[in-house]
Amino acid sequence: MKNNKAKNITIACISVIIVLGILFLAQRLLMPKYVDDIVEGGMVSEYYDEKSKDFNVIFIGDCEVYENFSPVTLWENYGINSYIRGSAEQYIFQSYYLLEDTIRYNKPDVVVFNIQSLQFDESRSEAYNRMTIDGMKWSKYKLGCIKASNTGDEHLIEYVFPILRYHSRWNELTSTDVEYMFKHKKVTHNGYYMRVDALPAENIPPAKPLGDYSFGDKAWEYLDKIRTCCEENNIQLLFIKAPSLYPYWYPEWDEQVKAYADKYSIKYINFLDVADEIGIDYNTDTYDGGLHMNLSGAVKCADYIGPILQNEFNVPDRRSDAALSASWDQKIQDYNDEIEYQKKLYNIQ
Amino acid sequence: MLFTSYGFIGLLIILFILYYTVPKKLQMPLLLITSLTYYAMADVRFLIFIGVSVVTVWFGAIKIEDNNKAIKEYVKLHKNEMSVDEKKAYKKAGARKSVIFFTLTLLLNLGILATVKLAGLKFTGILIPLGISFYTFQSVGYLIDVYRESIDAQRSLPRYALFITFFPQLIQGPINRYDDLAPSLLSEHNFDFSVFSRGMERILWGYFKKLVIADRLLMGVSTLISDPSTYKGGYVLMTLILYTLELYADFTGGIDITIGIAEALGINMKENFIRPYFSTSLADYWRRWHISMCSWFRDYVFYPMSTSSLSLRLSKWARKHISDSAGGKLPVYLSSFVVWFCTGIWHGTTINFIVWGMLNFLVLTISEELSPAYKKFHERFAFADGPIYKAFMIIRTFILVCVLNLFDCFVDVRDTVGLLISIFKKGSFSLMEKGALLNIGLSAADYIVAGVALIIVFIVSSSEEKDNISVRDKLRKNPYPVRFIVWTLLLTATLIFGIYGIGYDSSQFIYNRF
Amino acid sequence: MNELMEILKSLHPDVDFENEQHLIDDKILDSMDIVRLVTELTDKFDIKIKAKDIIPDNFNSAAAISALIDRINEE
Q1: Among the four residues A245, B75, B441, C8, which has the most C-beta atoms within 10 Å?
Q2: How many domains does chain C have?
């Protein structure tokens, strides 16, 4: 009798394990891989693959950080070891939770936050939430991020078991989904998304006047959280606004950021104001007509922010660190390979 | 809370775990609390409605039973002192009290149902308690059974409340009878893997039908019925078939989940469907579709009416003044008319449902009148008993049911009739040129998945129809690994091909690079 | 019993009522037949068959129907 019971329990356990195993495989297969088309969805998880995470500078924010600064330039020219934790349309609450998530691994000297997401008080699309949150490792911060990001019809359980969310992808599966079931394709260079092609900024649509320029309460609340988090961890905070011509950055918004930065003695650089000084040429330095920088623009921005980080924020030059240098050599190699690859792809001399 | 919500599945998991771990004495309270919680989650105010129903019927039934018992006791006690006539007179006088209790309770409950339904028709946004038709009918059935002394009244209020509020039956029935459900509902249950797994298997099968077939077809059906001026002609054929299949998968799937939940808890619930689309006639269909409702009307309306003394007098009169056969048929048809009128209203208080009920009545009456001719036809032609003719009858009935179902879809009967006529108009199919079927919200992949799933359901049903043994019983004879593979396949297929959650729409992901 | 058989035969001449044990379960008698049967029985035997007595167990065979009639007569 006892023997029988033990046998039944064993069978039950094996059954459950097999079912869970099959569902896990199905889930891996059905989840989007962000390899072929929308690589932005793969960025958040890429951070965890970094062997050593002792970065001195962490950028957080949306496409205005991950396309506009080249960490390779920061390393090559200033010896700054930096990483960009960016993701597509990263909302300010997501930036906060990503910051907390990053600090779990390592405390940087400086956090650079792109303030353009202050304009959004709530998530606008579940798809963007997914691209930021799915890649996060489980922690109370991921839970908080899910809660803060909910567009209304999202369920925690769909984040815990993404198969519930992605099951209907069964008729969109490609060989890529099989190939990348268990591996990840590196899509960034320390979080930087590279483009070498150029599309001159012309026909920027005129800015529409807004009824209300004040940022929402939730946005302010999370800006405070980012600030206090940095204060508590002895991290210096730097606000930036990337030099993107569009979407339009209103002067009324800029005023509010300036006032906040002044109040808490935080440095704020609006790259739009210093674009000429940096030498940004909107004919050659953007790949999508003024929305985002291409490689050339990203190098210029890095060269502008590098000395500031070094001189005003005392970020160390670590090029004498042999182990770190070695790992960067590999990164630079990959970086240069991709430049070559993209040049061929876009037919650029 | 819908069966297909995450919350409901969460509730089930918690219930199953608690149910088999708490002391058995607490199983019933647990079920009652779960049921009330489930009901309150829809809207706390609903508890007042169902509470009134539960308390009044429970109390009324006890009063009726007490009175009936008291009369019997008295007669028994004074057996020798009373003459037969005296006894009869005493019984009759005493029964009056029962009649009063019965009538008051009945009118109160039916009155609430009618008021709520009619008010809902007149004013929008009025509070219509979840499943009020179902629980009122179930309560009334119980009350009548006690009144008729077919069953003993339940003296414990919580026990009676559980019989009425038992949560899986609340939304869509079935309308359970006390003597069927109560014995297993109100007893304690040990965990038995074979019982539990049988229930889970049934639940899974229900979800498969509901999520993979019904909710998928619904995407097409809702487009088709949204605009009768566009989707006419050839489209109506699509509507007829898709709606009937959707209704089948949704309703039988939902009942599978209901009965499966009960089964997993060790509770036996009566079947509500016996493979309805294998019916060879409309009468046959109504013995196989939504059985609990049909038998309710049969036992509590049709028989009492058609065998009432008034009917008998009418029958005698007709026999004398019209013909012998008319005498036999008149009470039947008259009661049948009332039943179908009520059935129509039961489905919905708008005219289209009454028309639907009347059409059912008409078809049933005509086929009853024609039955001697059918009989002769069958005697005359041997092929009429063969499989081909049987298939013909099944298809004929299916088409008839499809047409009748269309009256559910449109409130305006003229729409329904106009659409049916439009099928036969010239050029009705030229409307549908070039991939029209892919423009109603269903992709080619959806048709394939729904098609394959329907074929699976068809194979299961036809095997059951042929052998009259449930496929699940057959499956049980197989070794555990076989059963396990079937369950895993069913679960995986439901999870992947089911329509639920925020569908991953890749177009949403066309990133604007902002 | 003979009278009962006559009534049954008039409803369905082709059914073997002497031996059939599942008149209701096998759907030999439908609800229309039941009502006609009850009407006839009420007439011929001068009894009152209540709606509560109309359950499959009471109508599944000629013997069951006969037993029902006897029981009602006793009451």
Answers
A1: C8
A2: 1
What's the pLDDT tens digit per position in B64-120? Answer: 999 999 998 888 888 888 888 888 888 888 889 999 999 999 999 999 998 888 887
Q: How many contacts does A have with B, using Cβ atoms within 8 A?
A: 72
For A189, B10, B300, C13, the CA distances from C10, given in Å and listed in that order, are 93, 59, 27, 6
Give pLDDT, residue C57.
85
Percent of chain B with pLDDT strictly greater than 70: 96
Q: In this complex, do B492 and A26 lie within 8 Å of one another by their Cβ atoms?
A: yes
**pTM of the predicted structure, to 2 decimals:** 0.90
Could you give the CA distance from residue B50 to residue B374 in angstroms, rounded to a whole number?
A: 48
For residue B283, what are the CA distances in angstroms to B276, B288, B296, B368, B395? 11, 9, 16, 9, 14
* Cβ distance of A127 and B495 shorter than 8 Å: no
Say how far apart CA B193 and CA A178 lie, in whole Å: 37
In the structure, what pLDDT confidence band is assigned to residue A1 with cuts at 50, 70 and 90? low
- B299 contacts C35? CB cut-off 8 A: no
Q: Which residue would you say has higher pLDDT here, A290 or B134? A: B134
Q: What's the whole-number mean pLDDT along residues B360-371? A: 89
* Minimum Cα–Cα distance from B449: chain A residue: A171
CB count in 10 Å sphere of residue A144: 17
User: Could you identify the residue written with the tokens 């042999």?
Assistant: A322
Sign of CA dihedral B8, B405, B259, B278: negative
Residue A210 sits at the chain B interface (C-beta within 8 Å): no
Most trustworthy range by pLDDT among A30-44, B186-200, B310-324? B186-200
Residue-range definition of the domain harbouring residue C28: 2-13+21-74
* C31/B contact by beta carbon, under 8 A: yes
Q: Do B316 and C32 touch (CB under 8 A)?
A: no
What's the pLDDT at B124? 67
* Pairing label, strands A82-86, A267-270: unpaired
Distance from CA of A91 to the nearest CA of B (A): 13
DSSP state for residue A183 in the 8-state scheme:
-
Catalogue all structural domains in chain A, each as residue range(s) with its CATH number.
31-346 (3.40.50.1110)
Interface check B283 vs C, CB under 8 A: yes
